[in-house]
Amino acid sequence: MSAAETAQPALSAPLTKADFLTDYRLAWESRHASLAGRKEVFMGKAKFGIFGDGKEVPQLAMARAFQDGDFRAGYYRDQTFMVAIGQLTWEQYFAQLYANPDVEAEPATAGRAMNGHFATRMLDDDGNLTALAHSKNSSADISPTAGQMPRLLGMAYASKLFRQNPELHQFTDLSTNGNEVAFGTIGNASTSEGMFFEALNAAGVLQVPMLVSVWDDHYGISVPAEYQTTKQSISDIMMGLQREGEGQSGFEIFVVRGWDYAGLVDTYQRAAAVCREQHVPVLIHITELTQPQGHSTSGSHERYKSKDRLGWEESHDCLHKLREWLLAEGHATELELDDIEKNAAAVIKTARTAAWAAFFDPIKAERDEAVGMLEKLVTDTGTENTLHELVEQLKTNPTPIRADIVRTMRRVLRAVRNEKRSFGRRVVQRHLEQLLAENADRYNSNLFSQSEYAVGNIEEVAATFAPDAAQVDGREVLQACFDANFQRDPSIFAIGEDVGKIGDVNQAFAGLQDKFGELRVTDTGIRECTIIGQGIGAALRGLRPITEIQYLDYLLYAIQILSDDLACLQYRTKGGQKAPLIIRTRGHRLEGIWHSGSPMQMILGSIRGIHVCVPRNMTQAAGFYNTLLRSDEPALVIECLNGYRLKETIPANVGEFTLPLGRPEVLKKGTDVTVVTYGSMCRIVMEAAKQLAEVGISVEVIDVQTLLPFDTDHLIADSLQKTNRVVFADEDVPGGATAFMMQHVLDEQGAYRFLDAQPRCLAAQPHRPAYSSDGDYFSKPNAEDVFDTVYELMSEAEPEKFPEIY
């Protein structure tokens, strides 16, 4: 249908006067919450505020179309919606504003995300998924604009799989025949992001129940629509997605004004029905919205909006328009509405007061307890003049935070370091240790799963080999591994460019689409960002996706989603949500600037919270896949691009054997020098070790196997204790993963104590590798480079035995 046909739909939802007044009450409660939140920031009780004022009425209409089993991926102005669906209380709203780290008080993020970042707890206390089909669900918000769109696509895609794949019909706690709609919200300015367009195109191709609401208040902070969107209308420029008729592919597009309550309710009912019943994606463009307090507490919109615009916004405020409609239609009297507005303010005041007390009273109690201990220490040590000011500052601070308590205790203990140890000093020390542990739980915990399915809890099963085991191409080991896992678990599926029909460009999925069907081994368009998002959303809903990024260099397209969404999901919900997505890719050595990358420094620095596996061959990769597919944690597996045609012995238990993460393997024992490496470099180093042995140098070669986690048992330090010399070698840029490994071994493991020579790092050149075999040889470390680096170490120690070569 056209925008004109949907501009003023008639109210068709069977709502009563009580429904109307309930919505009016919620709308005014939300408005008062926004107004109060801004004041709390300016009073110094919160650090930042961003609010949903001006968006209340369309969110109420959306909430009336949201059913059990549905999912939301939104942005930071959806407070009215979250309260309307019963997944947020006003006390929790203010608890998040104050950053209360108590997960009972602030269940969305436990104070880890700034206000307006909503989430429901999808995991029970043991880390298992709850019955998501029977609850209203919100995936955990992120701040990057349009970053919610890739995940939204994945949650909608899961509904398609649950409906169309009969093997998934058994999971009735996760889906009701795929009837669930994935609701997304986004501001009009954020539709300028590529992720928005990519996600909408993919949804149209996939035909999934994704309902996107664009809240259009004409601005993106201070930048008006004429700088944001062609024609200043996202619905106008997206009309090419409009399907031509029922049964045709494409979108349904609706346009409705954000202050038209009747039109909004009707539009959302019809739009959600199309999504739910036909699995057709829908775009709803909500126009003529306002933002009464401006973008956030960071500034005032009076600086960039004209007087005419400000006047228009005041007259078109959706709450004022709703009041006008209720009076005009005879649904309420002036007195009734006045009472509702007054009571709404009182409700918010009560919630705000209770939330502040719940946040601040425990801190005051902790402060008072600490002050009591410190005052005794002052008396015990007789150093009143030195410590009195520190303790008094803490004691008289009207609004202390926990950092003030810990900071003061540390400084006090520093001041008495030369005093005789006393009972009071020991009490303070023990209490400080307790506070640090408590705050580690509050602020540093749950980066990874705490459940029985955490990677470290997966039983290790050794690979077994039949006496007559075949030597096959490495890709065939992976193919057999995937085949076995797909048979074992119907929730596993794989998507990616060229994964389906041809079985990926290196044939590890060859023949599996024919065997398991297109729903489980699926080709996608060229769209790395939303391939990852498709996996995140499906994994959130209990499925086990393997998403393929064709080459490691192309991870750049998706690194923002991996970093800002997947990597911090368990952390930012303090164990409330998980998405055990496996990202499969390939890299390291080959020819060419864009097909042989090893950007490990970028990866290691940006995706903490995702495991990083760097297997040297396909058998090792298969062991990692077997482990990860039984775990509930996300991981990136980087296969060796030049290893698919190399011969390997296929294990008899190819789909069952598992490899632990974080445990290096000694590939060759030695006594003179330890070389630490991974991936394709293992073959290079092993060849160099063979050449070094010919001149009397014994090299111990260690394959770290995984970079995150890294050598959890400190096996490399044990090797250095024997050899006293070390070389860290890989194909990343200088100062990249070699420096990462060195820091772990020398600093974290304390292995510097065992060294008799300077540790050496051998990396690639600081540029991408040039094309051709010569380009590879001169761009990345080769066996001769390894030989020379190790030889130089030995020449320094025994110059007569190992004279200079060059």
Automatic annotation (TrEMBL):
<dbReference type="InterPro" id="IPR009014">
    <property type="entry name" value="Transketo_C/PFOR_II"/>
</dbReference>
<comment type="function">
    <text>E1 component of the 2-oxoglutarate dehydrogenase (OGDH) complex which catalyzes the decarboxylation of 2-oxoglutarate, the first step in the conversion of 2-oxoglutarate to succinyl-CoA and CO(2).</text>
</comment>
<keyword id="KW-0786">Thiamine pyrophosphate</keyword>
<protein>
    <submittedName>
        <fullName>Thiamine pyrophosphate-dependent enzyme</fullName>
    </submittedName>
</protein>
<feature type="domain" description="Transketolase-like pyrimidine-binding">
    <location>
        <begin position="472"/>
        <end position="646"/>
    </location>
</feature>
<keyword id="KW-0560">Oxidoreductase</keyword>
<dbReference type="Pfam" id="PF00676">
    <property type="entry name" value="E1_dh"/>
</dbReference>
<dbReference type="Pfam" id="PF02779">
    <property type="entry name" value="Transket_pyr"/>
</dbReference>
<dbReference type="InterPro" id="IPR033248">
    <property type="entry name" value="Transketolase_C"/>
</dbReference>
<dbReference type="InterPro" id="IPR005475">
    <property type="entry name" value="Transketolase-like_Pyr-bd"/>
</dbReference>
<dbReference type="InterPro" id="IPR001017">
    <property type="entry name" value="DH_E1"/>
</dbReference>
<dbReference type="InterPro" id="IPR029061">
    <property type="entry name" value="THDP-binding"/>
</dbReference>
<dbReference type="Pfam" id="PF02780">
    <property type="entry name" value="Transketolase_C"/>
</dbReference>
